[in-house]
Amino acid sequence: MKQYLALIYQKSLSDFKAEARRGSLGIIWWLLEPLLYVGVFYVIFSIIFHRGDESSIVNLLTALVVWKWFDSAVRQSSNSISSNVGLIRQVYLPKIMFPLMVITTATMRFLIIFPLLIVFIILQGYEPSIVWVAVPIIMIVQLMAIFAIGGFLAAIIPFAPDLRMLIDNGMTLLFFLSGIFFDINNVSPNIKFYLYMNPMIGIIESYRDVLLDGQWPDLTMLFIIATVSMLGILLACYILNRFDRQYLKII
Amino acid sequence: MKIPKIQRPLAIKLRNVGVSYKIRSTLFKTSKYWALKDVSFDLYHGETLGVIGRNGVGKSTLLRLLAGIISPDKGEVINKGVTSSLLSLQVGFIQHLTGRENAILSGMMLGLSKAKILSLMDDICDYCDIGDFFDQPVRGYSSGMRARLGFSVAYYSEPDVLLIDEVLGVGDADFKIKSSEALKKRIMSDETVVIVSHNVNTLRELCDRVIWIENGIKCMEGRASNVLDEFVRYKGKFENIRKINHKP
């Protein structure tokens, strides 16, 4: 067990290092990428559609940085077993490790970018407030949601490889439904309930409440997301464990 | 006191084991293919067991079963608490990392603790003998150098039961000799080894006992020379029949 945890850490760190050495700009890309990303959306929404005020950049950036963590972790995790066939063929490793390794790498990357987001928020004139202590709670809830969705997809995709085609579009759909470009409170109440099925909408809202509005997040909602995620994690672990030594025969 | 071979402690026991693979033809239609149908044998500590058979009769599947990578769909594999792993090269190598970093990662995947690999690092570095390249990214290695590094890490991983699939020597000409000599020495020692091959001579030289697998079924087991002679005779006949059938 300890050996496996050490391996997850080692592998994530290695992937992280490899990524930093890949491009000639290396680590700078982690910073540049979300900025370019925000730039694109800012141009479209602020300049072309004339929607949004001065606060929209920081609003957008906050949402995009946390979304990016969710997005890259879930996408990579969903592929983690099928894309490691070579390794699975050579050594026995508990299959749960594959989603965990990519999620850890994505989380490391996020933990580097996040402080920069905080600096940016402060530079924009937002006062650090006592409610910021709630940020780690939101992060843990988000991590649980990532693990639940990513782990579940990793567990079932080897059985139905065609699902992979749907994941790209599914993630795009979630992206537009996550309240990155709109305020959830402006949506009519009967649709609102369905929108909250997507955990990221509540999570992004919580980050904004805390960092930008200086309010405590809706703890009941976070608790519900955490509970549902926990069930998802258990289900994913159950499937991965049940078919631990079967996956190679299926892929 | 030397213990007679047959009374050595049991390492792994296979009882009527079968393994099936799923083949997906269309979305909802899958068919089963039994790579192994019925195989039983005991593996004892310290022996070298050979597995012979033609291509595609389930030899590699058998090794994966012994390595614990897959579970049987029929029968039982009883492991008496031994670690077993395939001699696999370049496990989990990452192109942009150095040889040293890859050795750590790869060694951990093969089941060593990080502390253990670090303590073996000098030996691994000496053994693969690639000089300063050891601290360069693997991306810039020639395939020969990569094979050297891969073999060195695998060689030092030392599981209780070593499983070898076909290849004995790897890399460039010099290293091929060095690596196959090293492996042979280890096989001849008291280590528990299972070698899978379709090469009769290799098995004759290295094994105490041989199992012959045909179409997923164990059809003979016994002293290496007996089984291999029988295999050669059968193979000769089989090829004759094939020749006759292919005559116009």
Q: How would you describe this structure in keywords?
A:
heterodimer, A: 251 residues, mainly alpha, globular, B: 248 residues, alpha/beta, Rossmann fold, Helicase, Ruva Protein, domain 3, 2 domains, 3-stranded antiparallel sheet, 7 helices, 9 strands, 38% helix
Structure commentary:
The complex is a heterodimer of chains A (251) and B (248). Chain A has 251 residues and is mainly α. Chain A has one domain. Chain A contains 11 helices and no strands. Chain A is globular and about 55 Å long. The two termini of chain A are 26 Å apart. The mean pLDDT of chain A is 88. Chain B is an alpha/beta fold and 248 residues long. Chain B has 2 domains: 127 residues, Rossmann fold (3-Layer(aba) Sandwich); 73 residues, Helicase, Ruva Protein, domain 3 (Orthogonal Bundle). In chain B, a hairpin with a 2-residue loop joins strand 8 and strand 9. The interface between A and B is medium-sized, with 26 and 31 residues.
How does the helix and strand content of chain A classify structurally? mainly alpha
The helicity of chain A comes to over 70%
CATH classification class of the largest domain in chain B: Alpha Beta
- Radius of gyration of chain B (CA) equals 20 Å
The strands making up the biggest β-sheet of chain B line up spatially as 5-6-7-3-8-9
Uncertain segments of chain A: none
Which CATH architecture of the largest domain in chain B?
Answer: 3-Layer(aba) Sandwich
Strand segment count of chain B: 9
Elements of chain B, N to C (H/E): EEEHEEHHHEHEHEEH
Biggest sheet details of chain B: 6 strands, mixed
Helical residues, percent of chain B: 25-40%
CATH topology value of the largest domain in chain B? Rossmann fold
Cα end-to-end separation of chain A: 26 Å
Structural class of chain B: alpha/beta
Oligomer: heterodimer
pLDDT averaged residue by residue of chain A: 88
Most extensive chain interface and residues per partner: A-B, 26 and 31 residues
Morphology call of chain B: globular
